[in-house]
Amino acid sequence: MSPRSARLARLSRSVTFSACHRLHSKSLSEEENLKLFGKCNNPNGHGHNYKVVVTVRGEIDPVSGMVMNLTDLKEYMQEAIMEPLDHKNLDKDVPYFSEVVSIPPALVTFQL
Known about the structure:
The protein is α+β, with helices and mostly antiparallel strands.
Protein backbone atom coordinates (compact mmCIF):
# COMPACT_ATOMS: atom_id res chain seq x y z
CA MET A 1 0.00 0.00 0.00
CA SER A 2 1.47 3.36 -0.94
CA PRO A 3 1.90 6.05 1.75
CA ARG A 4 -0.85 8.13 0.15
CA SER A 5 -3.41 5.38 0.42
CA ALA A 6 -2.40 4.23 3.93
CA ARG A 7 -5.38 4.05 6.23
CA LEU A 8 -4.88 5.79 9.57
CA ALA A 9 -6.81 5.18 12.76
CA ARG A 10 -6.75 6.04 16.43
CA LEU A 11 -7.10 3.58 19.27
CA SER A 12 -7.88 4.89 22.75
CA ARG A 13 -7.99 3.13 26.07
CA SER A 14 -8.64 4.62 29.50
CA VAL A 15 -7.82 3.55 33.03
CA THR A 16 -8.72 5.06 36.37
CA PHE A 17 -6.70 4.88 39.55
CA SER A 18 -6.69 6.36 43.03
CA ALA A 19 -3.73 8.01 44.69
CA CYS A 20 -2.96 10.60 47.34
CA HIS A 21 -0.51 13.46 47.48
CA ARG A 22 0.29 16.68 49.29
CA LEU A 23 0.79 20.03 47.61
CA HIS A 24 4.01 21.20 49.23
CA SER A 25 7.14 22.93 47.98
CA LYS A 26 10.44 22.32 49.78
CA SER A 27 11.55 25.81 48.71
CA LEU A 28 8.75 27.47 50.75
CA SER A 29 8.26 27.75 54.50
CA GLU A 30 5.42 25.87 56.21
CA GLU A 31 3.48 29.15 56.42
CA GLU A 32 4.04 29.97 52.73
CA ASN A 33 2.97 26.47 51.70
CA LEU A 34 -0.19 26.71 53.78
CA LYS A 35 -1.01 30.13 52.33
CA LEU A 36 -0.39 29.00 48.73
CA PHE A 37 -1.93 25.52 48.82
CA GLY A 38 -4.48 25.84 51.64
CA LYS A 39 -6.12 22.58 52.75
CA CYS A 40 -4.27 20.72 49.97
CA ASN A 41 -1.10 21.23 52.05
CA ASN A 42 -2.44 18.90 54.77
CA PRO A 43 0.58 16.94 56.11
CA ASN A 44 -1.43 13.71 55.74
CA GLY A 45 -2.19 14.45 52.09
CA HIS A 46 -5.48 14.08 50.26
CA GLY A 47 -6.72 11.75 47.56
CA HIS A 48 -7.93 11.90 43.98
CA ASN A 49 -9.39 9.55 41.44
CA TYR A 50 -7.42 9.96 38.23
CA LYS A 51 -8.47 9.08 34.70
CA VAL A 52 -5.80 8.52 32.07
CA VAL A 53 -6.67 8.22 28.39
CA VAL A 54 -3.96 6.93 26.07
CA THR A 55 -4.50 7.33 22.33
CA VAL A 56 -2.36 5.59 19.74
CA ARG A 57 -2.48 6.87 16.16
CA GLY A 58 -1.01 5.05 13.23
CA GLU A 59 -1.44 3.15 10.04
CA ILE A 60 -3.80 0.20 10.04
CA ASP A 61 -1.80 -2.95 9.48
CA PRO A 62 -3.16 -4.59 6.31
CA VAL A 63 -2.70 -8.09 7.74
CA SER A 64 -4.06 -7.70 11.27
CA GLY A 65 -6.41 -4.79 10.63
CA MET A 66 -5.08 -3.14 13.81
CA VAL A 67 -3.12 -0.02 14.65
CA MET A 68 -1.90 -1.81 17.78
CA ASN A 69 -2.88 -4.94 19.60
CA LEU A 70 -5.33 -3.83 22.32
CA THR A 71 -4.02 -6.50 24.70
CA ASP A 72 -0.48 -5.10 24.34
CA LEU A 73 -1.73 -1.57 25.05
CA LYS A 74 -3.58 -2.82 28.14
CA GLU A 75 -0.40 -4.51 29.41
CA TYR A 76 1.75 -1.42 28.75
CA MET A 77 -0.73 0.79 30.63
CA GLN A 78 -0.83 -1.67 33.53
CA GLU A 79 2.97 -1.57 33.78
CA ALA A 80 3.48 2.16 33.17
CA ILE A 81 0.45 3.62 34.98
CA MET A 82 -1.40 1.25 37.26
CA GLU A 83 1.45 -0.59 38.97
CA PRO A 84 3.51 2.50 39.90
CA LEU A 85 0.58 4.85 40.70
CA ASP A 86 -2.61 3.06 41.81
CA HIS A 87 -3.28 3.35 45.55
CA LYS A 88 0.06 5.03 46.13
CA ASN A 89 1.19 8.16 47.91
CA LEU A 90 2.61 10.03 44.92
CA ASP A 91 5.03 12.08 47.01
CA LYS A 92 6.46 9.12 48.92
CA ASP A 93 6.08 6.15 46.58
CA VAL A 94 6.88 7.69 43.17
CA PRO A 95 10.53 8.81 42.85
CA TYR A 96 9.74 11.54 40.29
CA PHE A 97 7.60 13.46 42.78
CA SER A 98 10.17 13.36 45.58
CA GLU A 99 11.74 16.54 44.18
CA VAL A 100 8.79 18.29 42.46
CA VAL A 101 5.35 19.42 43.59
CA SER A 102 2.75 16.83 42.59
CA ILE A 103 0.30 19.09 40.77
CA PRO A 104 -3.49 18.56 40.76
CA PRO A 105 -4.73 16.02 38.19
CA ALA A 106 -6.87 18.48 36.22
CA LEU A 107 -3.70 20.33 35.24
CA VAL A 108 -1.79 17.34 33.89
CA THR A 109 -1.75 16.82 30.14
CA PHE A 110 0.73 14.76 28.17
CA GLN A 111 0.84 14.47 24.42
CA LEU A 112 3.22 12.04 22.75
